[in-house]
């Protein structure tokens, strides 16, 4: 199962707003064949975002969307300059995990991984590790070692 | 300290689990033990057992969706959105430990508890049952208004409404087929479709309901029309995609026209006639039924009304009863009468038991008994739930026997009713009042003595 690969990791993504971050990440996901409709997917994610912010505090946001615009489930990571994301704790966001799940997805393996990742994000040493990585390979290694089933 | 918690959110991809983690961390820091049930996209994980809930000092709910609540009755409980647990899991746990017990006690009266239980039940309704009950609940006020107007018209004489320009005629105009009773089936169908497909479902559903009336398919036809319209609109919404700048005409043009035509034509050409035949057969069966068959039906209705006290089985019997009203304008429905009588006796019987067998009930139950008189007299069967919840194995069989007796007697005496609700306040709409009163009194007394005999003395 390849939920994430080094092409889906962007360190130091340049973006001006959360919409900009999401559009740019969605375009990369589309280049990797994970998304067939960048606008449709971005809209779904922003719609979810409008229910309440996925910026859960500690500088982390985990935007996600379950829509037909996703061709296969994926996980994407980007680090950005601190940006406003209407976070619950009022802080800025610099770590973004973008999640895509096809509408008709039946299997639950990837959902279990995302659940485990969500739990892991609540731990400060894991977040510190994410901020310290220098290359996409390091990030993948960190995720592998974190024992979340990737 | 032991804490149990539930986390849930609509998408259930991340926040459910983050909230769980936050609660676990916060509890660990305080040195408390905690178990968190997660209700996310993977399904229910780490489900709480009754034993764990029993042993817990407090319950924390961080949920944006409805979760089963009955199991937490009597526990200190705090409930908040998922986001709250991410922000302040620590504070939530503190708050829970100081919270009021959920449900029973907590200074709430029996009537409040019953209202809570009813609200919770309607929130938990799902799927077909939820759609059906949505239709029925919107229909009831029409049936009540119509039934009572017709009943008053009959006070002037059974045929008085045939005199043009008389008050009796106007009352029949308000309540009868040209007024409230004529709206009954369209409203039922319309709001079933509304429940399935939201607002766009309403017009095709109501129109389908009027087609059902034209086909003489009655209540049953209304049910079919409502579900048909609802699902047809769902299909239209799913498969007809217009360009963005034309999307505005979906709700005002495409859905009403296509939905109504599809529903109506299907009813006229395909489904309507068999349903009408079935409806006629059912009505003939009911009106022709007498003697032992009628008594057996009354018995079954009684058992159904009492077994879950306002739950799906009770509501199924109730919906059946209101359905028979549509075909019984003028005569009143014996089935409806049995349904209401059997639904009144459980709280009445329990109320009587608290007076006759004082030693078998706690002080709180005796107080609740006073309210149970009122709830029973108003035909709110749910009034029995707090008693049944405390001692189900002794209370439920007792009220079932009492209600079965009442249902059977009501049918045996040939009592009828022209309205679907109201308890003693609509007794003027009952045919054969003496028989009806005997039926209710008998069930009440039998319930009281059974409960009194079976229950153990309170220490």
UniProtKB/TrEMBL annotation, chain A:
One of its GO terms (molecular function) is protein-N(PI)-phosphohistidine-sugar phosphotransferase activity. InterPro entries: PTrfase/Anion_transptr, PTS_EIIA_type-2_dom, PTS_IIA_fruc, PTS_SugarTrans_NitroReg. Residues 2-146 form the PTS EIIA type-2 domain. It is found in: Cytoplasm. The keyword Transferase applies. This is PTS transporter subunit EIIA. The lineage of its organism: Bacteria, Bacillati, Bacillota, Clostridia, Eubacteriales. Keywords: Phosphoprotein, Phosphotransferase system, Sugar transport, Transferase, Transport. One of its GO terms (cellular component) is cytoplasm. GO terms for biological process: phosphoenolpyruvate-dependent sugar phosphotransferase system. The keyword Transport applies. NCBIfam families: fruA (TIGR00848). It comes from the Bacteria.
TrEMBL record, chain B:
Keywords: Cell membrane, Kinase, Membrane, Phosphoprotein, Phosphotransferase system, Sugar transport, Transferase, Transmembrane, Transmembrane helix, Transport. Its main location: membrane. PROSITE patterns: PTS_EIIB_TYPE_2, PTS_EIIC_TYPE_2. The chain crosses the membrane at residues 135-161, 167-194, 215-236, 248-272, 284-307, 327-357, 369-389, 395-413, 425-451. One of its GO terms (biological process) is phosphoenolpyruvate-dependent sugar phosphotransferase system. Coiled coil: none annotated. GO terms for molecular function: carbohydrate:proton symporter activity; kinase activity; protein-N(PI)-phosphohistidine-fructose phosphotransferase system transporter activity; protein-phosphocysteine-sugar phosphotransferase activity. Residues 128-459 form the PTS EIIC type-2 domain. This is PTS transporter subunit EIIC.
């Amino acid at each position: 199962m390849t939920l994430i690969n080094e092409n889906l990791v962007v360190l130091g993504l340049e973006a001006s707003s959360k919409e900009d971050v999401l559009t740019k990440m969605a375009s990369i996901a589309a280049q990797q064949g994970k998304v067939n409709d960048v606008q449709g997917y971005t809209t779904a994610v922003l719609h979810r975002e409008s229910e309440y912010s996925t910026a859960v505090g500690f500088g982390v946001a985990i935007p996600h969307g379950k829509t037909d615009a996703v061709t296969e489930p994926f996980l994407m990571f980007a680090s950005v300059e601190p940006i406003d994301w209407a976070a619950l704790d009022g802080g800025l966001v610099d770590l973004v995990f973008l999640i895509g799940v096809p509408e008709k997805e039946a299997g639950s393996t990837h959902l279990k991984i995302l659940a485990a990742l969500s739990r892991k994000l609540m731990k400060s040493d894991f977040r510190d590790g994410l901020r310290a990585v220098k290359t996409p390979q390091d990030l993948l290694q960190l995720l592998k070692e974190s024992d979340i089933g990737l | 300290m032991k804490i149990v918690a539930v986390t849930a959110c609509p998408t259930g991809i991340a926040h459910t689990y983050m909230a769980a983690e936050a609660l676990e961390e916060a509890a660990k820091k305080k040195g408390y033990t905690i178990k968190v049930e997660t209700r996310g996209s993977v399904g229910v994980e780490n489900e709480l057992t009754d034993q764990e809930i029993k042993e817990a000092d407090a319950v924390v709910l961080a949920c944006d969706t409805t979760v089963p609540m009955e199991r937490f009755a009597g526990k200190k409980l705090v409930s908040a959105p998922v986001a709250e647990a991410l922000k302040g899991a620590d504070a939530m746990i503190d708050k829970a430990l100081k919270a009021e017990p959920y449900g029973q006690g907590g200074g709430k009266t029996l009537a409040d508890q019953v209202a809570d239980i009813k609200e919770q039940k309607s929130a938990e309704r799902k799927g077909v049952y939820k759609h059906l009950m949505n239709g029925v609940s919107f229909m009831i006020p029409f049936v009540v208004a119509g039934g009572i107007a017709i009943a008053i018209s009959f006070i002037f004489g059974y045929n008085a409404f045939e005199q043009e320009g008389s008050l009796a005629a106007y009352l029949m105009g308000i309540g009868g087929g040209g007024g409230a009773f004529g709206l009954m089936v369209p409203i039922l169908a319309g709001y079933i479709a509304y429940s399935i497909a939201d607002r766009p479902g309403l017009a095709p559903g109501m129109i389908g309901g009027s087609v059902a009336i034209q086909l003489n398919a009655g209540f049953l036809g209304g049910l079919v029309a409502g579900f048909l319209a609802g699902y047809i609109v769902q299909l239209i919404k799913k498969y007809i995609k217009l360009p963005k700048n034309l999307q505005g005409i979906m709700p005002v043009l495409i859905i009403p026209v296509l939905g109504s035509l599809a529903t109506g034509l299907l009813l006229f050409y395909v489904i309507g006639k068999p349903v009408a035949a079935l409806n006629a057969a059912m009505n003939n069966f009911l009106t022709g039924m007498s003697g032992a068959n009628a008594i057996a039906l009354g018995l079954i209705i009684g058992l159904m009304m009492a077994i879950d006290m306002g739950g799906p089985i009770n509501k199924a019997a109730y919906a059946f009863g209101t359905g028979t009203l549509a075909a019984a304008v003028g005569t009143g429905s014996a089935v409806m009468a049995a349904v209401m009588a059997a639904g009144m006796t459980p709280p009445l019987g329990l109320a009587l038991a608290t007076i006759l067998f004082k030693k078998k009930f706690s002080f709180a139950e005796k107080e609740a008994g006073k309210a149970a008189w009122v709830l029973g007299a108003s035909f709110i069967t749910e009034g029995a739930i707090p008693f049944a919840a405390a001692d189900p194995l002794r209370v439920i069989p007792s009220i079932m026997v009492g209600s079965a007796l009442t249902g059977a007697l009501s049918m045996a005496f040939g009592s009828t009713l022209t309205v679907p609700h109201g308890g003693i306040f609509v007794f003027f709409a009952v045919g054969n009042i003496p028989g009806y009163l005997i039926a209710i009194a008998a069930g009440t007394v039998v319930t009281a003595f059974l409960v009194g005999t079976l229950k153990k003395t309170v220490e």
